[in-house]
């Protein structure tokens, strides 16, 4: 790659109204997904809804021209956070089951 | 407080909040308009000054490298805290990975999940490693790369390969890797001081070709350390949580 080639700016070819429409669409989807996360009551389903919300948020960052934030959000918001919450739920469930099975002895 | 009084209190608070919020919104610059000079200046000088064509990385690891050290240690402290809080308590024992409901060996993940994990593990590992080692050209660097790389490990776990996950990321090793990578970042900064420059100054010679791996001095080096640290921190947090699901409280304490 030569020096001057770097100075050439790629023209912005996508029509502006199309980007505007895309941005509005993604914003609406993110708002709907966020409302969905709150509306779901079962914790396990809620984690899945949260993961979908994280994925949509990643798309939002991409559409708003922040590809670096997209990559973080994709792995943290859509994968790592839901996995951590799922594991926490599994732990709580295992403990509840354990306490159910030995009610007399107490657990202190 | 009566419900009527509470309603009035809420109405007053909501009105105040709305007024302040709208006032704040009115003072914002127009959508997509950036009034400050710094972004424009950086855009003009960054490539020539750092030889990195990924300007986001140049900012993260060069212009504001000191802030990035702080962020790095936020994650480091978080991972340390998780391992402290989730240590084995006295009397806790590990139960075999068996299905509680049917008392059989743990059921496998569904075929769909295993196939997805199989398909995405390799690409996640390669993309993550590429991002972490190519900060100077990619739109990101170590943090994104490390997070994507950690996703590959998590996918192995999700694919039902718990023993494999544990074998390739034993906690003691992950711990050591995380700490040395975090230390490596700090060491790069100290090396600059030893060379008689400010902390974290780019003391390595810049290559001739903007964007090449070796061209941007310490940017690639720091990004590498950050990538390893972030990946190890994520894997550490997840393995601690995975182990927690297998622990049951002990008989008596």
Give a nutshell description of this structure.
Chain A is mainly α. Chain A has helices spanning 3-7, 16-39, 43-63, 67-101.
Question: Runs of chain B with pLDDT <50, length 5+?
Answer: none
Beta-strand portion of chain B reads under 5%
Q: Which runs of chain A of at least 5 residues are low in confidence (pLDDT < 50)? A: 1-7
Report Rg of chain A. 22 Å
Q: Helix tally of chain B?
A: 9
Instruction: Give the helix/strand class of chain A.
Output: mainly alpha
Could you walk me through the main structural features you see in this protein, from its secondary elements to its overall organization?
The complex is a heterodimer of chains A (108) and B (253). Chain A is mostly helical. Chain A is 79% helix and 0% strand. The longest helix of chain A has 35 residues, at 67-101. Chain B is mainly alpha-helical. Chain B has 9 helices and 4 strands; from the N terminus they run H-H-H-H-E-E-E-H-H-H-H-H-E. In chain B, the strands form 2 sheets. In chain B, strands 1-4 form a two-stranded antiparallel ribbon. In chain B, a hairpin with a 4-residue loop joins strand 2 and strand 3 (104-105). In chain B, helix 3 crosses helix 9 (218-245) and helix 5 (111-133) runs antiparallel to helix 6. Chain B is globular, with a radius of gyration of 24 Å. The model of chain B has no long low-confidence stretch (mean pLDDT 84). Chains A and B meet through helix 4 of A and helix 6, helix 9 and strand 4 of B.
Q: What is the topological layout?
A:
The complex is a heterodimer of chains A (108) and B (253).
Chain A: H1 3-7, H2 16-39, H3 43-63, H4 67-101
Chain B: H1 3-26, H2 38-50, H3 55-63, H4 65-85, E1 93-94, E2 98-99, E3 104-105, H5 111-133, H6 142-158, H7 162-168, H8 171-194, H9 218-245, E4 247-248
Helix pairs in contact in B: 2-3, 3-4, 3-9, 4-8, 4-9, 5-6, 5-9, 6-7, 6-9, 8-9
Which features would summarize this protein structure in a list?
heterodimer; A: 108 residues; mainly alpha; 4 helices; 79% helix; B: 253 residues; 9 helices; globular
